[in-house]
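Hi P.,

Sorry for the delay on this. The queue was packed all week, but I finally got your sequence through. Input first:
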Amino acid sequence: EQECIERFISEISSTLDGRYEWEVIFIDDCSKDRTVDLIKAQAANNPRIKLLVLSYNHGKESAFTAGVTHARGDYLLYMDP
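Then the structure:
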């Protein structure tokens, strides 16, 4: 994921900014690469980018539930890399 996360955030931002109220919630379920650090850097500059870091690998269903629980919008788009 670390190879594409910055481009993903950039493209989401440029597509949605000014058109919609939006947020992106990333859930880290014990990633082993630099993805978390890259998301943290993006989130520091963009309040629409959120990161939930789970304490250990809870599994896909628990990670999804955490994201839904923290989502604030009327619609949800779920993506799993």
